[in-house]
Design a protein that fits this description.
The chain has 336 residues and is of the alpha+beta class. The protein contains twelve helices and 15 strands. The chain has three domains: 94 residues, Uridine Diphospho-n-acetylenolpyruvylglucosamine Reductase, domain 2 (2-Layer Sandwich), CATH 3.30.43.10; 118 residues, Uridine Diphospho-n-acetylenolpyruvylglucosamine Reductase, domain 3; 107 residues, Alpha-Beta Plaits.
Length: 336
């Protein structure tokens, strides 16, 4: 990948820029030494590495606004960063730019069960949202494989999905509003707690924009009530083609699983060795199908899915017998 040519004029003013940023974000909020910036040279796509000119770690919306305003006035590029778990290179720094790390924005500001929303800062991890509301029987639906580490801010930047996105949608379908700082330093609010905000769907534009349009400093996310019952089914096939056919037949039958994923032979073997999830090792492809709802409905759906699987030449079918086993089935997939 060809990186943009560095701006020699900006680099010549590096000391001046660092001093100005330290006046905005005091203490250890500005990192300028090469050694200390090393952890920020790439995201999860480690094939590409680039040290930033300087790293800035603000802890308030006002600091973000002042940093962006200064950089805009000086013609300095800014790359926002969440947890750096992405495999897309979205947080890859620029050698003549500022890397704006949002890790200090890690607070859950409000949980509103009546309106079924949570208001969080962008540095809150994906899994932490579900953990904060699970005592009341709620959860946050988008669940990328990196959910233990990835942040809600990064999820917005990448429009992250997860195993449950088939039924409940991607991040864009589960974010209702945000506070955002534009690259000029202006602070704006989009959407809100209500499900259908008036005006244009600006949240739909921001979600998936990889930080190009601004830096999100607060997010209002939708939380869902957990289904009464949830069970997962492991379905093994002799080929990926048969597994793909089964997916089409399940959807064609009007069944929308809460989650559905496919793994190939290499992923099955690797995950089973690591997690011991109970995956069959004599199959070339494995479907994990999760069904949720009232107990009677789930039992009926499992029977229908098992029948469809056998019609599609499944060579093994196993339904989870407990919540622990259901979680174990998914743990293997997430570890892959």
């Amino acid at each position: 990948m060809q990186m943009p040519e560095l701006d020699a004029g900006i680099l010549a003013r590096r000391d001046e820029v660092v001093a100005a940023l330290r006046a905005i974000v005091p203490g250890e909020g500005v990192i300028a030494s090469e050694r200390a910036m090393k952890p920020y040279e790439s995201d999860g796509l480690t094939a590409y590495r680039q040290l930033p000119m300087v790293v800035v770690l603000p802890d308030s919306t006002e600091q973000v606004a002042r940093v962006l305003r200064y950089c805009h006035q000086q013609g300095i590029k800014v790359v926002p960063r969440g947890a750096g778990t992405s495999l897309s290179g979205g947080a890859l720094p620029l050698g003549d730019g500022v890397l704006l790390g949002m890790a200090k924005f890690n607070r859950i500001r409000e949980i509103d069960f009546n309106n079924r929303v949570a208001v969080v800062e962008p540095g809150v991890t994906n899994l932490a949202v579900s953990q904060a509301v699970e005592h009341a029987g709620f959860y946050y639906a988008p669940d990328p494989s990196s959910q233990i580490a990835c942040t809600i801010g990064g999820n917005i930047a990448e429009n992250s999905g997860g195993v449950h996105c088939l039924k409940y949608g991607m991040t864009t379908n589960n974010v209702l509003g945000c506070e955002m700082v534009l690259m000029t330093g202006e602070i704006v609010r989009l959407g809100g707690k209500h499900l259908d905000a008036s005006g244009y769907d600006l949240m739909g534009i921001v979600t998936g924009s990889e930080g190009l349009l601004g830096v999100v400093t607060e997010i209002t996310v939708r939380i869902l009530k957990k289904p009464e019952t949830a069970r997962a089914v492991l379905i093994g096939f002799a080929s990926s083609e048969d597994a793909g056919t089964c997916v089409g037949h399940i959807i064609g039958a009007g069944i929308i699983p809460g989650g559905m994923e496919m793994m190939d032979r290499l992923a099955i073997d690797a995950a089973e060795q690591f997690v011991h999830a109970g995956y069959p090792l004599d199959v070339e492809a494995l479907l994990i199908v999760e069904l949720g709802g009232p107990q009677a409905e789930v039992d009926d759906l499992i029977g229908r899915v098992e029948a469809i699987a056998r019609d599609c030449r499944a060579i093994s079918v196993k339904a989870s017998g407990s919540e622990q086993e259901r979680l174990l089935f998914w743990a293997g997939r997430k570890a892959a």
